[in-house]
Amino acid sequence: MAVSLPLDYLQDMLLELLSIHSPTGYTDPVVRRVSEELGKMGVRYELTRRGAIRATLPGEVYSPDRAVVVHLDTLGAQVKELKENGRLGLTPVGTWSARWAEGARGSIFTDSKLFRGSILPLKASGHVYDDEVDKQPVNWDNLEMRVDAPLYNKRDLLEAGFNVGDFVGIDSQAELLPNGYINARHLDDKAGVATMLAVIKFLKESKMKLPVDCHVLFTISEEVGIGASAGLHGDVAEMVTIDNGTMAPGQNTIERGVTVVMADSSGPFDYHLTHFLLHLCRDHGITHARDIFRYYRCDSASAIESGNDIRTSLITFGLDASHGYERTHLDSLNSVGQLLVSYMTSHPIFKRTKSAHISLQDFPETRKVPVATRAADEPDNVAQLPLDEAKTDRGERPRDDSKKVMPNASKEDTP
Ligand SMILES: [Zn+2]
To answer: By the 8 A CB rule, do 7 and 198 touch?
Structure first.
């Protein structure tokens, strides 16, 4: 059954978050704003040394618990060079094409002051360069930032306080439309953060009970690959990351629902947790799809790579032109929120994972087809039962190998 999330709050929060520059490495202002919001809602939270936020929504049992993760940092740039022509050479923060930087407006944060400016190709004027403008290669060496101040040479830049390494925040150019489309840069992952905050607000106000503690982790360095490498509680048994899905030909991500990701560049996500999330979608009538992302990693990868023995998964909102001129739809954020509510209010998939080391008896079983046996009479059984018929055991299957056949066995093969 669908719950009614505070979507007006979600949109207001999203617009506000998009107005706060937070390139990886310069995230303190957004961390302060989100912390303030959590405080207002009466949510207990703490900051890690580096400034990630770990909030806790208490459940009936405090351990083993679960984590949901979003990232506060976005793409951006840093000053690479103070140029002789009074402009700034840039290097990207995070992975994004120089193509999407051309024409961007942004803020440069020097040690003492904030400047505004535009990122432009070196040959920016059609009246001067004619069709050479179209022949310039797309790369960051071919761009420079024009600062809106009377700066004509390197000495002017130095005297104004510019330095190599100054952070550049790229404006989001956010626009919400009445039909639900949301256009902006940095929807990755501020749309995820706003959805998470709306879910927290809903859970607080509706006083819905959580069966176990849920830690909400707001990470600050996902775009450079080290998001959730630290900050997880030791007894977190399962973790769901919320990030952007990839809309493109050949991809299966949907624009108006939630997409459960089966694998990304770091490999397949946890089988049991992923299928449990799919089961929740079906059970609660949440529009959903499955997808695999090819050039993609998220906070789940950094959590596993840094040695956490936990089950991880990734759920996403549909995002067109990710890391470029991004667009999502409010329906998609609502679906992600619906899934989060049903996940956070459900029991953990395996209750016995309190201790990190469990016996084979307690370990979940995955259905299988024996390789060596073939049954003549029921070839249709190859299709097997869908997992959601095992609602009550949440993915665990009783052992029954008697009626299974090899997936590629045909009638002729049968003795
Ligand atoms: Zn992201």
So the answer is: yes
Taking the centre of ligand 1 as the mean of its atom positions, its distance from the CA of residue 223, in whole angstroms, is 6
pLDDT digits (tens, 9 = 90+) for 96-110: 999 999 999 999 999
Q: Are 302 and 228 in contact (CB under 8 A)?
A: yes
**C-alpha of residue 164 to centroid of ligand 1, in Å:** 26
In the chain, where are the structural domains located? 25-68+186-344, 76-170, 369-415
Please give the distance, rounded to the nearest whole angstrom, from the Cα atom of residue 123 to the centre of ligand 1.
32
By annotation, the residues acting in catalysis are 222
Higher-confidence residue of 382 and 364: namely 364
Beta-bridged to residue 118, according to DSSP, are: 105, 146
Give the integer Cα–Cα distance in Å for 8 and 134: 42
Assess contact for 227 and 280: CB atoms under 8 A.
Answer: no
CATH T-level topology, domain 25-68+186-344: Aminopeptidase (3.40.630)
Rounded (5°) CA angle 213-217-219: 170
Cα–ligand 1 centroid distance for 298 (angstroms): 7
Residue 407 above 60 pLDDT? no
Report the CATH fold assignment for 76-170.
Elongation Factor Tu (Ef-tu); domain 3 (2.40.30)
This prediction's pTM: 0.87
Residue 189: cis peptide before it, omega within 30 degrees of 0: yes
